[in-house]
Amino acid sequence: MMMVRLNMKLALAALCAVALLLMLYWAHCTDDRHKPIGAAAPAAERFVAIECSINGEYSVACRRDADQLYLPFSFIKKYFEVYGKLTTVNGVERFEWSHSYSKVYHPKKTYDPRGTFTTFENYNVEVRDRVKCISGVEGVPVSTQWDPKGFFYPTQIAQFGLAHYSKNITEPEPRVKILEDGDKISQNWIISKDAVMSREFDPELKMKVLSFATTDHASSQVWLKLDIAQDFVLTMDLLLKPNSSMTVVLQNKDKKETVYLHYVFNNQLISALDDHIFYGVGEESAWRRVTRDLIVDMQKGWQLLDRPKRKSPRNKFKISSIILRGSGSLGSAQLATSAHTAHFYAAARWLVRSQRPNGGWPVPARRRVAPHVPDLTPGWHSAMSQGHGISVLARAHYRSGDAAFLRAARRALRVLRLPSGAGGVRAVFMDKHVWYEEYPTTPPLFVLNGFIYTLLGLYDLHAIAGDRDAKHMFDDGMASLKALLPLFDTGSGSFYDLRHFTLGVSPNIARWDYHATHVNQLYLLAGLDPDPILLSTAKRWENYMSGKRAAHN
Ligand SMILES: *[C@@H]1O[C@H](CO)[C@@H](O)[C@H](O)[C@H]1NC(C)=O
Ligand SMILES: *[C@@H]1O[C@H](CO)[C@@H](O)[C@H](O)[C@H]1NC(C)=O
């Protein structure tokens, strides 16, 4: 996948202009042996300027002190792609050098498909810039990665589901405030003069619901005054008639800034005008359960308005009211700190609903993968989408017992068997080793991380439902992985794919966060398969991240 960036903070924090010579304050003093170390002549006198010619191509200003030479860290950082920052430990400043900006997570226990998906509890898919917003109709993210208009990207939707499934396991229980439960708990809604509101039994929801009707007049409304901080995930049963809306008003605690989140009867994805942000929740006057992370909805509105990202709005805003306009009904309603299960099932249900008869989740955007390779045209399949989709559906089946999830997961295998040239994702390396392609180009690329994620999907389906086809496909894939893994080893890192072999172009070296993903994936697989190549490769590759390269001759 082309989108995970772990620990970019470290990379950003890396300093550009720290001169190493400052660290040598304590250096041996050659001109005056009687003075204590460090109290010698001022640095300016000790370190003389000297030109360093770099490979005879350009020059860098360096310093010399007797027989020692010092290069500026800004140069070293760029030349060797290393990272460093000044820190203070116990009041003493020091410089911390790091070879890579990424981190490896050592699995604490053997991977279990009923548990977290790898380390996805750390993922926050919805806050990524390339997520336009969470669709008001579907409840899943909309990607702008390869198309600014936005499209449903199955890999991203599945990652959203897997992240929330994982967070449901690792995070504390949500705090829940019930606003309306159709029975004992209800609020004092304020009805403007020309509006009406009633409570009656709804045969479909089988509970008392609140029905409202206002006039076209701007001040005509039914509303609820609130003062709630922290619990920003709103879940409600909502039925809107045409031209109606439910608005949540958020207010900044300090600055009296007001933001209006309008959930309206239409199919529009998102729009924003000043402090008004609009999400369409569909054009059907039927009950729907809406689950919205209000802070995410507010941030995506700001993103659309090109406003700068703000730090921790979750601590700065509160919910000040809910306004109903037009006509419709409201069943149960609650506010909570999180609703991971609802987000997870939104992804799982989207996967079931949008799956094609051939089991695929086509990607509706054009994708340029590599120079000299024809673009993948809208409708292409990705083994990673299929694999991640299976991982979501297997878990949804496990949690709910609903066979529809399992059927969809099994159907998804079909695309993995179809060759890349025939609309599928299957490639064969040197006529021998089967590979599930994240990007099914011709010629093939053999992307490593997407392939391993696909294997995990197969493993999940077999482990949860005992699916034998999935087991065979997993075994075939593992055999390929073990055979081809050495080809991904650069001696100091890993290759993202094998384009240097299949296209005869310059190799595509995995940047550190992808390399770390490879290492994480190999440690996980090493817990499932005792073949020593998995663990030994994981360890060697992890060592590359602290600069320990393979030996040379
Ligand atoms: C996890 O999901 C279960 C089942 O929906 C729910 O009862 C529990 O509160 C959830 N916990 C968290 C942390 O989301
Ligand atoms: C919705 O609003 C539009 C324009 O404001 C109006 O023309 C239309 O009649 C309204 N529809 C209903 C069902 O109220």
How would you characterize the overall build of this protein?
This protein is α+β, with helices and mostly antiparallel strands. The chain folds into three domains: 43-98, no CATH class; 176-337, Jelly Rolls (Sandwich); 351-544, Glycosyltransferase. Helices cover 29% and strands 24% of the residues. The protein contains 14 helices and 22 strands. The protein has helices spanning 8-13, 43-46, 73-80, 154-170, 294-304, 340-354, 383-400, 403-411, 413-417, 448-465, 468-484, 499-502, 512-526, 532-544, and strands at 48-54, 58-65, 68-70, 83-89, 92-98, 131-134, 141-143, 176-180, 190-191, 196-202, 207-213, 222-228, 233-240, 245-252, 258-264, 270-273, 276-280, 288-293, 317-325, 327-336, 426-429, 433-436. Helix 4 (154-170) runs antiparallel to helix 6 (340-354) and helix 10 (448-465) runs antiparallel to helix 11 (468-484). The model is unreliable at 2-38 (pLDDT under 50). Bound molecules: 2-acetamido-2-deoxy-beta-D-glucopyranose (2 copies). One 2-acetamido-2-deoxy-beta-D-glucopyranose (NAG) binds next to helix 6. One 2-acetamido-2-deoxy-beta-D-glucopyranose binds at residues 242-243.
